[in-house]
Amino acid sequence: MGIRQPAAIRLGRLALCVAWLSMTGCALHRPVHLQDARAAIVQYYEGGAYDREIQQAGNRALTLVKQAGIEPVAPTLILDVDDTAISTWEYQRRVGLGFYYPALQAWRAEAKAPPLEPILQVSKVARDLGFRLVFLTGRRESIRTETEQALRQAGYSGWELLVMKPDEARGPTADFKRDARAQLKAAGHRLYLSIGDQPSDLIGRDVEHTILLPNLIYRVD
């Protein structure tokens, strides 16, 4: 696979334009300048709006977790990894926003991603209440060691499973996650709450409650 410039990879102007328009309310006549769209997204992430939305989502999750009964079957909390359990914003700033695989792999190898604090708190409260904690990620099995290290470094502990996409899998991540949730349910898990930043974290009818976190930078099919 050839190496392209980070700023150009998987960043459609239309997607960035929609992000810009959602913040400015301006009329859609033509796509905005890419530099302006990037600036709007950076402002969203670093100006407090993103943190407020994550906190609001964390508050909703805490309410749900505290309402769950643990009898007769302990409930399961499912968390995505990237931009749910941990933040990829440092990597995004390095590459100018987008997907640049060599840089992403180097960043993941560092295993120093900070947690999304409200989600970390949800995991701790859930664990104290007797929840089973499962991470379900589209990351490949080949980087399990780095992923486990990153989760521990970010403050997570006591998880029961880290379900990762097989290296040989070629289908959409949405299908992999849907099937994984179905397998968890068949294995006896009471899937109470799933939190993630992608629609693929929510599809299907196996989970009682779902919370979608904001992500204006990338989408995983």
Question: Please, could you describe this protein's structure?
Answer:
- This protein is an alpha/beta fold.
- Helices cover 44% and strands 14% of the residues.
- It is built from eight helices and five strands.
- It has helices spanning 13-24, 34-46, 49-67, 89-95, 101-110, 117-128, 144-154, 173-186, and strands at 75-79, 132-140, 161-165, 190-196, 209-212.
- The protein has a five-stranded parallel β-sheet, sandwiched between helices.
- Strand 2 (132-140), helix 7 (144-154) and strand 3 (161-165) form a beta-alpha-beta unit.
- Helix 1 (13-24) crosses helix 2 and helix 3 (49-67) packs parallel to helix 6.
- The longest helix is centred in the first third of the chain and has 19 residues, at 49-67.
- It is globular, with a radius of gyration of 18 Å.
- Mean pLDDT is 88; it is low at 1-14.
How would you concisely characterize the structure shown here?
This protein is α/β, with parallel strands linked by helices.
List the keywords.
221 residues; alpha/beta; five-stranded parallel sheet; 8 helices; 5 strands; 14% strand; globular; disordered N terminus
List the helices and strands and how they pair.
Layout: H1 13-24, H2 34-46, H3 49-67, E1 75-79, H4 89-95, H5 101-110, H6 117-128, E2 132-140, H7 144-154, E3 161-165, H8 173-186, E4 190-196, E5 209-212
Parallel strand pairs: 1-2, 1-4, 2-3, 4-5
Helix pairs in contact: 1-2, 3-6
Principal-axis shape: globular
Distance between the termini: 20 Å
Q: What Rg, in angstroms, do the CA atoms define?
A: 18 Å
| Helical proportion, percent range | 40-55%
Oligomer: single chain
Low-confidence stretches: 1-14
